[in-house]
Fold:
Amino acid sequence: MVLRILGLFLILFSTVLIPPVIISWLYHDDAVSVFLVAFSLIVGLGLLFWLPRHKYRRDLRRKDGFIIVVMFWVVLSLSGSLPFFLAENPNLSFTDAVFESVSGLTTTGATVISGLDELPKSLLFYRQELQWLGGMGLIVLGVAILPMLGIGGMQLYRAEIPGPMKTDKFTPRIAETAKTLWLIYIGLTIACATAYWLAGMSLFDAVAHSFSTIAIGGSSTHDDSFGYFDSPLIEAIAVFFIFLAGMNFSLHFFALKNHSIKHYWKDEECRAYLFILVFVALFASIYLWIYQDFSDPYSAFRYGIFYTVSISTTAGFSTGDGYGNLPSFFPVLLLMVAYIGACGGSTGGGMKVIRALLLYKQGTREIKRLIYQSATISIKMGDKSIPDQIIEGVSGFMAIYMVCFILLYLILLATGLDMITAFSAVTSCLNNVGVGLGEAINNYESINTISKWTLCFAMLLGRLEIFPIIVLMTPIFWKQ
Structure:
């Protein structure tokens, strides 16, 4: 059953290569054959999985869900690397091709490619398209799939549990949920592309950047990212749509359904998300104004707000110079905030605001218990109490998250990377941010091969919320 579904996924995924073929034909960039060969190989592999089992039917078990979720991302990441590997420009090794593919589908935005401005338009479009599809996959994963699998804390998004879906049934079936999410996702993408185009981007750049903006991916068609356009208006549009994409998409659904924005403010996670971004943006802007040589406060606030929203939500866009001319405190601060990331059920990475909020509430409850030892204190989201099982799941998630960071960090240090590069690379890839410091400040091209494969694992680990991969690595899972 798993192989049958994977075969279908591969056949569907092969259609992703059709738009780049059209782009290649329109721009005459001589990359048509690359995508046609990749298309044939992926379709062939999909048929190999699917045909012998296409008549097999049975209900999926919870165990199958874990396997399918992990295999979906692993197989598609490997398949998605084919165009990068087959293309003559850039001339990537297999390792670099897989790294670029994993980075795209997980919406991390880390790249091993330099000279983006000289790449074929079709390959540039394909990079952006991977992020857009990965972002949609994340929403369906976060809102529809992970709650069913009981991933730590994500049970909050079941209709019977307090959270964004607490008062109404979102949709009774996953297929209907996915369809609704797709419509919202496409609508935001079209709106974002239109805004970019009206603000002065070319049509190609507007569509390409709308893909990575709504996916909170961070990839660009230019080495200087948003610095290429040097436009405060374009940066403001990016900030607005990144902010929207970082919210739980079920809130967008309810806003459209009820023609009201009150659900945003009523949702405690959304309020915390807004507070974190506003507080950090103001603090970062004032810091840049005081400690950095900006000609006027406007510039400090412009870059402070843009970088805060971009990195804290794990998008990872830059304004050209990156962090080379900024004090080291600034990027490290934002990378730390990226551990919180965006809201659950969004396209953003990190541990998610909902988990950080529950951990904060758990911490304050323990402090109160020390003072009022005989009191019974419950944790609430809004006016509903949160079951201890969910709190325990979030605490366990946090513990495993930190253990994974430490192990990955030590592995990168063991490969010879310096502490700054290793720290920023693991933080960035585990939280799906993409930006780096040290050797990775511009791109990850100079990182050694072992580190690149380790970071690929980190990107998948962070994107799949840790538990699905960890569960598959435990012997007891396979004995069930």
